[in-house]
Every structure is written in structure tokens, then in C-alpha cells.
Amino acid sequence: MRLLLVEDDNHVAAALSAVLARHGFDVTHARSGEEALQALVPGGEGFGVVLLDLGLPDQDGYEVCGKIRKRTSTPVIMVTARSDVRSRIHGLNLGADDYVVKPYDTGELLARIHAVSRRTVHEDATGGGESTLRLGSVHIELPTRQVSVDGTVVQLTRKEFDLLALLAQRPGVVFRREQIISEVWRTSWEGTGRTLEVHVASLRSKLRMPALIETVRGVGYRLVAPAA
After folding, report:
1. Residue 216: strand pairing partners
2. How far is Cα of residue 96 from the mean position of the Cα atoms in its chain?
3. DSSP string, 93-138
4. Most CB within 10 Å of its CB: which of 3, 77, 160, 170?
């Protein structure tokens, strides 16, 4: 996932970018509100999430959030030391999708990033968008939960389908093991890791595409879209 980090402190940005990169994010750093808005011009490179610090040198962060919302529906997570309820409500009313207060736990921040990303994917899938995911010769029918390869239906278990559909909604994006377990099995990572590995192996075998689901060592898995 491409992520726009809006942060004027270079040391903070460098440390956070390194953490995000280890978790599969492609981070672009903007040091001011103006840089952020230029990065979000229509037709420019798309971002999955904007991580917006409110203490910017050139513009008020709330003002930047309002401008971002006018030009894109990309999820915005505000990051600030302002912890009062009124500030949070103001940010949400301006169009922010979430609000993280400094100092924050990195794990919590990652969870919030993935949460707003999942919410956006769900809204796209249920808001009149495509009901079929097409990945080369692989077609995934979301309403009927049917998968076919080159026109031939492949019989998958419920969890195999859920796993494939989750990865296929964002080809190329790395999904953390913990996130997959939470989304597909609705439980914690502990004790379920081997189950995930077995299901990934089963999907590779049933679809006859060993390279379709790539293991990202130490992080999780991502779907590599095959050629059409």
C-alpha cells in the first residue's frame, strides 16, 4: 500500500517510515501542507492512506485535512498531541477517518491504518462497485463466492475463499499475518499461524498457481496478480 506521511519533523518521519516500510508500506514523505496537497493532485499517484500530523509549519493541519477531503476520498488519519474530545470531533467533522494521539503505540497505529483501509475496500465492494475481481485468468465472484480459473470453477472451502478474496482486493499489498488471522478467522494470531500456512498452500495447489500468493518473510502474504 502507498502511504502519504505528512510530518515536518524529519527525525520522526525517518523513524516512522522505516517501521512502515518493514510492514510493507511504500511511504512518501511530505514536510508541509503544501507538499501534501501537491502529492494529492488529481491524476497523480494514488495513496491508500494519508497519515497527517497537525503541527505543520505552513498551514493548520485541520485546514489541510479539509482541503484533502475536497480533492480525494483517500482515508486520512490525523496524528496529534491534542487529546481533548473537542479537537477530535473537529477533525472528524472535517472528514478525517481516524484520530491518533501522541505518544502512540506503533502496533495501534498500524492497526488503525489497516482498519481504515479495510473499511474503504468494504465500502467500494458494497457501494455499487465491481462484484467480480479479475486477476488475469482468475475470476472471483464475491456475491456467489465462486472462483474460476480459465473458465473452470475451482472448489474452495469457506476460509480458502475468504483468504483469497481478502488478498485479491488489494493485489500487491502486503497483509500482515495477524491482520489476515483477524479478518478471516476472527481470532488472534496465537495458535492459528499453522492454519494460515496450510490454507495458503492449499490455495496455491487448487488454483495451480504457486506464485499467485507470495510469502513476505517475517511479515505476511501478498497476492501477485497474474498476467491477463
Report:
1. 220
2. 16
3. HTT-SEEEESS--HHHHHHHHHHHHHHHHHHHHHTT--SEEEETTE
4. 3
Residue with grid cell 456475491, as numbered in its chain: 143
Q: Please list the residues that pair with 51 across neighbouring strands.
A: 5, 77
Q: How far is CA 211 from each of CA 1, 191, 197, rounded to the nearest angstrom?
A: 20, 26, 15
C-alpha cell at 49: 492512506
Task: Enumerate residues 6+ apart whose C-beta is below 8 A from 14.
Answer: none
| pLDDT score, position 106 | 86
Between the alpha carbon of residue 73 and those of residues 48, 65, 215, the distances in Å are 10, 11, 31
Do 133 and 167 form a contact (C-beta atoms < 8 A)? no
Per the prediction, the chain carries an average pLDDT of 84
Regarding pTM above 0.70, the answer is no
Peptide bond preceding 103 in cis form (omega within 30 of 0): yes
Q: How far apart are CA 218 and CA 191, in angstroms?
A: 17
Judging by beta carbons within 10 Å of its beta carbon (0-12, 13-18, 19+), is residue 225 exposed, middle or buried? middle
